[in-house]
Amino acid sequence: MNSRIARLPLDWSSRWFQALRTMFGAKSTAEFDALPVRVHGTEFTRTTASPVHVKGFDQPLVWVTFGLLMIGLVMVYSASIALPDNPRTGGNYSSSYFLIRHTVSLMVAFVAAVIAFQIPLNTWERIGPWVFVVSIALLIVVLIPYVGKTINGARRWISLGFMNFQPSELAKWGVLLYAANYMVRKMEIKEQFFAAVLPMAAAVAIVGSLLLAEPDMGAFMVIAVIAMGILFLGGVNARMFLLMAFLLAGVFVLIIATSEWRRERIFAYLDPWSATNAIGKGYQLTHSLIAIGRGEIFGVGLGGSVEKLHWLPEAHTDFLLAVIGEEFGFVGVVLIIGLFMWLTRRIMYIGRQAIAMDRVFAGLVAQGVGIWVGFQSFINIGVNLGALPTKGLTLPLMSYGGSHLLTEYTALGIVMSMRKRARPTLQARDQTELIGAI
After folding, report:
1. Starting at the edge strand that comes first in sequence, how are the strands of the sheet with 164-165 ordered?
2. Residue 344: CB partners within 8 Å, gap ≥ 6?
3. What is the residue-averaged pLDDT of the chain?
4. Would you give the distance in Å from CA 150 to the centre of its chain?
5. DSSP state for residue 83 in the 8-state scheme
6. What are the two backbone dihedrals, phi and then psi, of residue 421, each rounded to the nearest 5 degrees?
7. How big is the CA angle at 286 (ends 387 and 308), to the nearest 5 degrees?
8. Residues 82 and 308: beta-carbon distance below 8 Å
9. Residue 141's CB: how many other CB atoms inside 10 A?
10. Torsion over CA: 197, 202, 203, 209 (sign)
11. For burial by CB atoms within 10 Å, which of 102, 224, 324, 343 has the most?
């Protein structure tokens, strides 16, 4: 009887409940809705079932993301308000120049996230390889003289007039989609090292070689970790994964050993306070540490930072956390770390939920986004605190910059769409199980 009921379509559930209500003589809907609940393992009682409210999005995830957005908006303004007086800028900016541009970037990113939220996951799975191909094409275009824009010796941007677009940010998203799509297609050969890993390794090597030509080793590290993480979560043999990790670490060591300015940056990290490094490669690190040291426990107050007054370069981008540490102290830094830890954990949880419902591509994409946000925030925070060498990576969702905000908020929009589509599935599954139990 129960097995036959369990197979009834959900469309018949209301009619079936009405028949049961008549059969047992229930006088009201509330009386029938009292469901049997096991108490102390053996006895049964009845309790009134509360109505199910299905939200269209993950509210905690939205609020934490919004909190990071607003903190970033305020701190970008605080960190950039003195830039018009900087001799390097020549007084070409107003005090609200970076605030306005950052606000516009956030608005564009929000629109992109809303659009991404509406696109089905099977569409992203279908176009994932093409996003990867477009990102490679843009990485090639940015290296063309007079096309790619050079800032501080690095050619990483393409000028679009109203903003500078950084193809390496699209490459992170392209590699993530391609890796998730690849693992779904190659699931049956994941135990075969060369068949499963070699094509993905070749794709990462192509992207990495283009990024190193810019140069942008920080983005290469993030992309490599995203690809490795998705391969591991997709089920690649653990011994293969460890072998790849050691090989990748060896590649990074070789890159550093063969580059004089990268070696100097490592030496500056090891001894930033020496007379040579303090005014050279270790200049940003020393002033970041001074800023955080001045903040002590509760900070000097919003707007009270001294280091942002032309002492700490890139205070509104790579070293935004140092200004937060100076103005809000240890408490402010711990708050930001806690928010990013919670955000990463929540995204990974959504990915595990999707995989549990056999939506492997969606799950791998969500977990890839979690790795992306978690690892990049870890690197940026580590650099600001002097725990890691300077890498030139922004603080996700917070630092000034249009390209990284656009891709990061788009990625979060897709993660939220997974949660939206998971709720009706979970509700339908629960209803089917309930009918079968009765």
Report:
1. 148-151, 154-159, 164-165
2. 370, 373, 374, 377
3. 80
4. 27
5. G
6. -75, -20
7. 110
8. yes
9. 12
10. positive
11. 324
